[in-house]
Amino acid sequence: MTWSVVTTHPDTLLVHAGLRMFQRRIGSLPVVQGGRLVGLRTERDVVRAFRTVQDLETADDAFVW
Fold first, then answer.
1. How far apart are CA 58 and CA 50, in angstroms?
2. Which residue, 25, 32, 34, 38, is most buried by CB atoms nearer than 10 A?
3. Exposed/middle/buried for 21, CB within 10 Å: 0-12, 13-18, 19+?
4. What is the pTM of this model?
């Protein structure tokens, strides 16, 4: 059990949530509003958003070996 859980707010930009996850080396952030859990941001959410921004059609397009 973790006593000091790192959380985020629904209005937090995804890039900021992603940076916090990277800095803290955690894979997800509970989204809390008014003391209540309203969602969860994950590494996958961050990667999917960046992939959409880069307009990549498949994950394979991101890597050229």
1. 12
2. 32
3. buried
4. 0.72
